[in-house]
Design brief:
By secondary structure, this protein is an all-alpha fold. The protein has one domain. The chain contains five helices and no strands. α1 packs antiparallel against α5, α3 (48-72) crosses α5 (107-131) and α4 (77-102) runs antiparallel to α5 (107-131). The protein is globular, with a radius of gyration of 16 Å.
């Protein structure tokens, strides 16, 4: 059941990312400085390998979250939500902010990416808590 919960949690985070970045594509591309072609889409397009790599990386995050949740006894909807949001807000988002500060990237980029990290980890936390 542990493997299934990790895959389901990663899928939840991935799906949330599709919606999040779909809705915020324009401000994200501006803040990230993504070069675009004449059609307004990112130059070079987006390879399916990017999406595969993204899902694999989310499997790693979900797997570690499951491990930490098991060690911490996190197994309820509310505790999964709070712990997951905490991972996104207090671990991942500050790291994104540090990288963006040193890269002189706009705060808007940090807010978009950190917001996604927080919501995706919260969703993963709920899935992990409910399926374990």
């Amino acid at each position: 059941m542990e493997f299934i919960s990790v895959v389901a949690a990663a899928a939840a985070g991935f799906a949330l990312g599709a919606g999040w970045y779909g809705a915020l594509a324009e401000p994200w591309m501006q803040a990230a400085g993504v070069k675009r072609g004449p059609d307004g889409k990112p130059e070079g397009g987006q390879s399916p390998l990017i999406f595969l790599a993204t899902f694999i990386l989310q499997l790693i995050v979900a797997g570690m979250m499951r491990h930490v949740f098991a060690l911490s006894g996190i197994d309820g909807l509310f505790t999964g939500l709070v712990a997951g949001a905490g991972v996104g807000l207090f671990f991942i988002s500050p790291w994104i902010a540090i990288n963006n500060l040193y890269g002189s990237r706009p705060i808007k980029l940090t807010l978009i990416d950190g917001g996604y990290a927080t919501l995706a980890c919260a969703a993963m936390g709920v899935v992990l808590a409910l399926l374990n």
